[in-house]
Please model this.
Amino acid sequence: MPRKKETGEAAVEESFDPLDLLTKEPKTVVLTLKSSEGVVVARACEALQKFAEKSAKNQLELTKLNAIGPLLDLLRSKDEALRAHAAVCVATMATNRDVRNLLRKLGAIPLLIELLANTDNVISQERASCGLASLVEEYSGKAIAVEHGAIPALLSLLASPDCDTQKNAIRALLLITDDYKGRPELRTRDDGLSSVLNLLDSEYPVVQKLALDTLIRCSSEVESRTALRELGASSRLVEILQNKEFHDLHLPVLHILSYCLSDPETAITIQGSGHLQMLVDFARQSTLPESQQHAVAALSRAAENESVRKNLHETNIEELLISLMTSNHMGVAKSALEASAVMAKSAVAKHTLAEQGAINCLMQLLVREEMEIKELALMTLATLSQPDSASSSFISKLIVENGGMQPIVAFLTEKTSTPSIFANVAACLANVAEEEYLRSFMLDEDVVVSGLVALLRSSDDAVQKQAASALASLFTDARARHQFQLHSGLGPLLGLLYSKNSDVRKSASRALSGCASDSVLANQICSQSGLERLQELIENRKWSWEAKCFEFALKCALDNCLPAKYWLEGYLAPTDIIQDGFYDMGQAFPGKKFLPLEDAYKLEMSHQVRTILLVNGKEDQHHHHHHHQGNELGSRPASEMELKPPQDPKERASTKLAKGKKKKEKETTFVNTVAAAKETSVGDHGNQGDSNHQNEFQPPADPVFKSYIDDVRNSILPLADEGSQIRLLAEFVFEKMGGAIPRGSFKSEMLVAGSDVLVKKELQCNVVPIGRVTMGTSRHRALLFKALADRLAIPCSVVRGKYGRTYNEVFLSNIGKDGEALKRRAYIVDLLYEPGKLMLDHTRQAEEYKN
Model:
């Protein structure tokens, strides 16, 4: 029998002697990652890490060999050493962009975060944070990291004794905060921003730089600036500026300060602590252009606060800014210009800048090649010249004296000008134009008004607003209004009333108010849909500040276009003086549009169109002989009428028939004059682009009305008593308009109302001169009375009341017992029944007459 083997011998025979595996195939090494022996796996990880370090090609080859899966499995291992080896290998592989994409898809980010949260192994922390930093370079990785709690895990590493771990952790946080979702979580954690701030005390510059870059990202948000203020960050940052050894950190520090000082409370805090003066000193003493640029930018942010501006003025910062704005370094010049514009919001600083030569420097900058410099120089000029302080006139004068208008105006025609440049040019022009004695210098430049009209057509709201504001300032000069007409500016200006921007609408309404002081422009405003648009804006914005602007624009237009005012409101006040060329279109109603007189003459004669009454006592230079004939058509002087009692109606009718025969031949000539006017109205006068006071449409003269004016001036004007003037004028109108109308006789009133229809037919025109009406209703009589009263300087209004009944109000003073004149009271003048009778307004008798 064979001998039994001993137990010890059996154990030796079954064991496997150690094998030193030598292989040059990475595929073989990848297979060993699944080994159950830790030593083998560790060696395999080391071998793969060295292989991957050599090239990106090797890293991609490992992905093809499916090495990623086993490595990620090892990150879950319970063996701390294996997790560390796997982290080293994954961190190396993650430097390759293509490999990173695969790592994210296979869930590497949550595994690394979990490893960071559950290990104290320095190697694992350093390599895992390094790998995580690589994996969050793309935005898809940032979101995953935030979602799985990367920020608290990384914050805990910022206090690590290992500088590489600190560097990797802050780098990962920097990359994560590049995404807007990461910043709020960092800010809201108790140990968030404070942990980053603590890294500023690190002895390693790279860690300090990464911490500062992270703070730059965070301080771009208002909430983070508040948190940094509460942590006293600004003081710590300014202290770094004072340390020359940290010169390489000065730029990022200034970046953060620029953000932080835009917070008003931070600006006040730094001012109170004395650090503001340190920042000014740093800007003065720095020899590096980039440092000066960002220091001045930080001061500019702080200067947005009024109290800080005052403090900066006391440091004589204006001198520094003027010296820097002409720097050859574009960044320095830009920052100095921006800061000057902010400081100019202070009246004291504005005056100081002007006195110390800022205007001259700015004019020099307008001819520099850099468009950004030109733009900022114009912006600063616009701010300096704003008419909001006692020095504004002085500054505007300096601009003009330094030859400023020509280079500023030149930008209006430059094709390379940007919308911002156009807006600032218009703002400068608007500001200078506020000074009356300087407007003439501006209008000497032919392109000013035409250029501003072109800017009205811009699609940029700021350009439109400033262009309209500039024109509004210029419109106090008649030359500007005339040029505005020549360049067809009204159309685009009215178009701005439809803008969605409230500031643009406000500026446009202000400009309309200015140009409406010209009667021709006011007429065009009313006839080119301006009335309708202003009324719509007023109705839609009741009780708002905008409505007040539109109401004022509408009032200015109507006050200078009385035909539109009477058409729309049915009322002309004593201050509304009827001039030659006035016409009454009747009452406005929905769907009916106001027509200029020229267009009214173009209308084909129709009985469906209400008669348009024309008041025109002007001599017709083109038909002078007709005017002399018209004087012969005038009836007897008022002095004769005054001496005789009113005629009996039958006697008056027979007298008129006799006169009618005598006038028949002469009226034929007047009809020909109207026909000539209609032909003229459809000619060249219709071109609005050429409209001005010399070639505007001239209606035919009304010689009969002219004779009325001569009669009342000769016989009524000499009377000293205003009451007697009114009564005699009423009798004059009563007689010229056919005498009395039987009270309450509807048939008689209808016959009288139809009398002007006969004249329309005779003239073949819807426009009838008031002098041609011989039988008039209240409409005709009240208009004639008002027109003649205005010639005699008798305060009188005309009112279109209910049912079309029109009447006149006059204002007389009663005499008290002691002979002293009492308060003027309104009286209604009877022109229909008892000529010259005055009825105290609001009495029963007056109300019956009015209604």
Notes: The beta strands are 571-572, 582-584, 612-615, 767-769, 796-800, 806-815, 821-829, 838-840. Residues 649-681 form the longest helix (33 residues).
